[in-house]
Amino acid sequence: MNLNADNFYARWREKQRAVDALREQNFVPAEKLLQAVWQHQRLRRDQLRTADGRVLRVLHPGFASAEGGPDFRGAVLQFAGEKPVSGDVEIDLQPGGWRAHGHDRNPNFNNVLLHVVWDAGAQVSTSRIENNPGKLERAPKLEPPALPLENFLDASIAELALALENESGLPENLRGQCAAPLRELSAAGLAELLHAAARVRFENKAGAMLARARQGGWEQALWENLFHALGYKHNVWPMQHLAETKSRWTRDADSAFAMQARLLGVSGLLPDDLTRAQKTSDTFLRRAWDVWWRDRDEFSDCALPRSVWKFHGLRPANHPQRRLALAAHWLAAKNLTAKIEDWIAPAKTPADPPNPVRLVESLHKIFQVERDEFWSWHWTFKSARMPKPQPLLGEARVTDLAVNVILPWLWIRAKEGGNEKILREVERRFFIWPAAEDNSVLKLARQRLLGVAAARTLKGAAQQQGLMQIVRDFCEHSNAVCADCRFPELVRSWRVSATAPAT
Fold first, then answer.
1. How far is C-alpha 302 from the chain's CA centre?
2. How far is it, in rounded angstroms, from Cα 246 to Cα 235?
3. What are phi and psi of 368, to 5 degrees?
4. Which of 35, 91, 199, 214 keeps 20 to 30 A from 243, CA to CA?
5. Do the domain assignments include residue 91?
């Protein structure tokens, strides 16, 4: 081929770019395109300034959020003369979208550090919150600093639209640079990679449990991790405190109700106001207070204030009162550890793999409470009585407990005790355990690593755990943008090694 020959494609391309340049004068991009530009940092990053003239460095653009609230979570930004801060980023076409969309009144947007827009429009405030000397409360939120992307693109918006667009549409481009090499892996190769990452995550969890067991014993390590799991991400630390002081407030509690009243009192979640619209709530609270009233002076030094608990963004079924009521039943039974040990006993015919569905059902039977006189019928203290009883623990949550607490705890105990039989049984169950429901981290991981339009789905909880470990190891530690991440290189090496002939 003669490289100097007339190039039809080149001539067509130049004409198209000229058309795009004319079109671009009045072109307003779609918000999804702005999200893709921010995700991939297609910006002159050394020249960024907010609408009010503040120099800005993007240390990490954050992670695209598929849930309600800001578009990107966990961004790390640095304004000139200030320390780096972590928070959220919201993207709108115009600065006026902040108020028009109700962000100024929505608590989900309290942690937004930067408002990324297409053009600056009218001048906006440089600060979200004003200080009020002499007052404890804060003034209403103002708009965060605005960053007009129009001024800082590293190519024309038309070129970026072409560069970022593909057959799956713009949302697909919110994936990371590793999506393409990951898709080149065979199903077996992807499973092997995810299982290797899952094993790292599993052993890390087990190692942390061992460190705690060496201080407080195996049973204490188990309870602390169970409480940690019941706290979700919102209430991990108050749950952790309760677990650490368990030996104090569990003493002499002779029934599940007494344990529950004690635990609700120590947690600070027992309401002071006994006036309730629902008669059943009022009766329950009065009985609980009769128990806590006698005990509260003894346990006042380890009691928590209600203010440490977070309720916003939680479904009623996940409110801490319900989770603590469930834990009270576990504690009152006094045989949880023995039941878990019986559950992990190897099958009489090890050659037959255990049925995953039955495994979940058998563990669920251990942790589920058949009936609670109050919490089976109420979501919260103030809610109306439900027409049908609701379980305190669903099977989906059992999977979380299994892969994050029960199996790692059993594995490290067996490893420390040299019990190879139990060790292999734990590993076998972990790698066949059914997949859990996607949480926010998993949704991010699927989008970031596999792409939202990926046909292949994750099979089993181990693959989910592996994906989350990869996000932690690479996505959360990359140098701000995907282009600096070495995970795609690892994937390509993995593919080569997987297809290389044995020598």
1. 29
2. 17
3. -75, 145
4. 199
5. yes
462, part of any domain: no
Q: What is the pLDDT of residues 171-206, one digit of tens each?
A: 455 566 777 788 788 888 888 888 998 999 999 999
Cα gap 440→401, rounded to integer Å: 17
Phi first, then psi: what are they for 155, rounded to 5°?
-160, 170
With contact defined as beta carbons under 8 Å apart, do 375 and 322 qualify? yes
DSSP 140: P
Please state, in angstroms and rounded to a whole number, the distance separating the CA atoms of residues 352 and 339. 22
Rounded to whole angstroms, how far apart are CA atoms 100 and 91?
Answer: 13
| Pairing status of strand 85-91 against strand 72-79 | antiparallel
Last residue of a domain, one of 382, 405, 432: 432
Question: Is 217 in the same domain as 327?
Answer: yes
Same domain, 129 and 231: no
Residue where a domain terminates, one of 174, 202, 222: 174
Q: Are residues 225 and 300 in the same domain?
A: yes
Q: Would you say residue 374 lies in a domain? A: yes
Q: Range of 159's domain?
A: 24-174
Model pTM?
A: 0.71
What's the pLDDT band for 468 if we cut at 50, 70, 90? confident
- DSSP label at residue 438: P
The answer to whether residues 263 and 396 belong to one domain is yes
Alpha carbon 466 to chain centroid, angstroms = 14
With 0-12 / 13-18 / 19 or more C-beta atoms within 10 angstroms meaning exposed / middle / buried, residue 249 is: buried
Distance between CA 228 and CA 240 in Å, rounded?
6
Query: What is the number of structural domains in the chain?
Result: 2
Task: Give me the long-range contacts of 20-27 (CB less than 8 A, separation at least 24).
Answer: 20/156, 20/158, 20/159, 21/156, 21/158, 23/158, 24/156, 24/157, 24/158, 27/157, 27/158
Whether residue 269 sits in one domain with residue 303: yes
Q: Are residues 285 and 225 in the same domain?
A: yes
Q: Is residue 248 one of the residues assigned to a domain?
A: yes
What gap in Å lies between CA 271 and CA 269, rounded to an integer?
6
DSSP 217-249: -HHHHHHHHHHHHHTTTTSHHHHHHHHHTHHHH
Helix axes 336-343, 356-367, angle to 10 degrees: 170
pLDDT in tens, 344-386: 986 655 556 678 889 999 999 999 988 888 999 998 888 888 9
d(C-alpha 393, C-alpha 405), whole Å = 15
Q: Are 393 and 368 in contact (CB under 8 A)?
A: yes
pLDDT category, 5, cuts 50, 70, 90? very low
Full DSSP string of 150-197: GGTBSS-HHHHHHHH--TT-GGGGGS-TTHHHHHHS-HHHHHHHHHHH
Which residue, among 440, 443, 409, has the nearest Cα to 426 in the 3D structure? 409
Task: Say if residue 63 is in the same domain as residue 199.
Answer: no
